[in-house]
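User: My instructor asked us to take a sequence, write out its structure as tokens, and then describe one feature of it. I'm not sure where to start. Here is the sequence I was given:
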Amino acid sequence: MRRAGILLHPTSLPGPYGIGEIGPYARTFLRWLDAAGCTVWQMLPLGPIDETGSPYSSPSSSARNTLLLSIDDLVDAGWLLKDERPFWNGSPHQVDFAAVLAARSIVLARAGARVAKQVDLDAWAHARPWVRTWATFAALAEENGGQWTKWPEPLRDRHPEALAAAEDRLAPAIARAIGLQWLFDQQWSALRDEAHRRGVELWGDVPFFVSGEGCETWVSRSLFRLDRNGSPLAVSGVPPDLFSEDGQLWGHPLYDEDAMRADAYAWWGDRMASVLELVDTVRLDHFRGVAAYWEIPLDGTAKDGKWIPGPGQALLEALRERLGRLPFVAEDLGVITPDVVALRDENHLPGMAILQFAFSTPAAFGDPYNHEFIPHQHRRRQVCYPGTHDNDTTLGWYQASSEKVRDQTRRYLLTDGRDIAWAVLHAAMRSVADTTIIPMQDVLSLDGRARMNVPGRANGNWGWRMVDEAVNLAVAQRLREQIVISGRLRPGASRRG
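Assistant: Let's start with the prediction itself. The structure tokens for your sequence are:
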């Protein structure tokens, strides 16, 4: 089925409390998606963020980002009082993650504590073993700092006596953390039910690697290539590619593939099952790591790395057995080799096509209208994007491009470039690819100031927010017209909305 959707992380939603939430404004956005004829809402990872606000460097691959909890919904449900709502007078256009955390931490702790006192959470937490583990880790991190490798040795190495004493000492903090995860589950379940009622699928995202200072490496050290103190023996990254001419040094620890295989990839199965409690489909970030990933020595740069074999088909077979299907989109960007293509196609996974790359990569210069991402080269089992969260907005990309790139873009799209974001949107909609996903910034024709992420830049990412006025019926109707024309409207839906 041909379909269309929007890429927008919940943190980018409008609202009065400094960060987008999963409450009233998220429900308003679902109504907007319905009016526009969209049937997919794609998001970034939904786990806790790191100190820079990055959802791709989370301290947990299972826990949920409770900064997304709706303050107003907590008030309406009685978990907060009206006068306990956090005051916010910062920018409505950008998330200040440090300020938001400072403003919300006390408020959310109150809500979590009230839940812990009033709700019997034992059965709920027992059905989700990761919850208590995360809550214990979060309480210990609050007590000892976020780097578990620097905790006192008995806690770092998970001595049973030390853990038992910590769980007793930190019982209130652990209970609060469990309560907050329960609140997220309540609010998210309501949002997901509303999405499905409107015929909208929720798409999530899973990074291939996990944080070296995260809960998973602390709990499952034997599954990672770590030394006796928990530090990585080598780290992750990528070689030079379309996003960075110097490559990228990500710094995650690498997996111990022998240990993962001996465990029948149960850790991966648990991880994916947890994410699929939230979303319908998962974008597998850095899918090429399934075939092979880039190992960088501790004292090296990204250019000093080498490819080492990944888990390959064995992982995908284990996930199929655990989940019953493979509800994945393969992020097959970067340095893609035949083994990556074979894994993708043999498992019938859709890949990705990025229109910005079709016109602006070195490969496009020799034969600018025969690049693999040019619309007439697309495949049905593919997801077409003007750009992703790692790209500039289409308008920002066009403004920053050379005249050569702008000229060949205009020629192909038959446009004068004055409404370039929508000219590229038109091409994405008319792609033969079954699914087209448009970043919300491009629907709003925003320039590079609305860019979500610059790969390789450590700070200043992830903060863009749209204003309340942007979610309006006129924009929805304009988008719906393109969805209708390109045959992407859900069967049975009104062509007029």
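For the description part of your assignment, you could build on this observation: The CA atoms of residues 180 and 186 lie 10 Å apart. Try explaining in your own words what that tells you about the chain.
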